[in-house]
Amino acid sequence: MPAEIVDVSRADVAAHYDDLDHLYRAFWGEHVHHGLWTSPDLTPEEATRRLIDAVVERARVSRGDAVCDAGCGYGGTARVLAHELGAQVTALTISQAQHAYATATDPGSENPRYLLRDWLENGLEPDSFDAVIAIESSEHMPDLAAFFSESYRVLRPGGRLVVCAWLTREQPRGWERRWLIGPICREGRMRGMESVAEMQRQAGAAGFVSESFDDTSHQVKKTWSLCIQRVLLGLLREPAYRRFLFRDGGPNRIFGLTMLRIRLAYEIGAMRYGILTFVKP
After folding, report:
1. If you placed Cys at 187, which of 137, 212, 239, 258 could pair as Cys (CB 3.0 to 4.6 Å)?
2. CA gap 216, 275 in Å, rounded
3. How far apart are CA 93 and CA 72, in angstroms?
4. Domain of residue 223, residue span
């Protein structure tokens, strides 16, 4: 079971990303996910690309493969897959702001094909993809079993699912649930966080075979130190950020302040980050 169960809807998640659109792009750019510091001297941009490369390697993406990006954000990873690797990419997001950015960046694009659509009601053809990737999106889906079920349905036999996931330790302490994991999930509009064992169990129930799990917690946590620095600098330099976070209100502004919880949760091991790879037999 998740370490924390939060009642989150599709509308909640979409509103979160629409409301924080300007902050996400200011602090993350077009790749709204962690960086992977395989070497301490990498720049943030290089670390972000290393995470994409790790996903590509595990998904075994090659030219001409049909790939679905479930929860594509601004489409940054989808564009790497399509433009650099020659894959045929379908990219889904439920955020109107993210979809608008992606389509404006790639006007008239048929590859990637950007869809404003819920993954749990994606309407895609069964057995139509060689790979499905989900980079930090499965946490936002209210039904994890349905996430795996839809991934299995759209993959061809032998197809691969690669999930980059926010995870918990196997048995979080009570205070970790109350003061760290619970607030992070509520403020980030996430259903919850599972342990790696629970993720693998639910994937297996959908029919997948678990191939590998890579714990990259120590290689990604630097992301949040950088985000905190960027937010603090932004608050000093940009009055608009101060107005948004401290005066304008809105249900999503608190996420700008919960970064400290996330960094602490990584530091003490309450949170983990991993890349899980599954295969459809």
Report:
1. 258
2. 7
3. 6
4. 10-279
Query: Is 270 a domain residue?
Result: yes
Which amino acid, residue 82? A
| Full-model pTM | 0.92
Q: Which one-letter amino acid corresponds to residue 113?
A: R
**How many angstroms separate the CA atoms of 101 and 75, rounded?**
8
Task: Give the Cα separation of 252 and 256 in Å (integer).
Answer: 8
Could you give the number of structural domains in the chain? 1
For residues 170-190, give the mean pLDDT. 92
Quote the CA–CA distance of 226 and 135 in Å, as a whole number. Answer: 19
CATH number at residue 256: 3.40.50.150
Any domain includes 41: yes
Distance of CA 210 to the CA centre of its chain: 20
Provide CB contacts within 8 A for 72, sequence distance 6+.
Answer: 78, 91, 92, 93, 98, 102, 112, 114
- Residue 122 domain-assigned? yes
The pLDDT score that the predictor gives to residue 218 is 95
The answer to whether residue 181 sits within a structural domain is yes
Contact criterion met (CB below 8 Å) for 60 and 129: no
Q: What is the pLDDT of residues 10-65, one digit of tens each?
A: 888 888 788 777 777 777 778 889 999 999 999 999 999 999 999 999 999 999 99
Mean pLDDT over the full length of the chain: 90
Q: What is the DSSP code string of 86-117? A: --EEEEEES-HHHHHHHHHHSTT-SSSEEEE-
232, pLDDT greater than 80: no
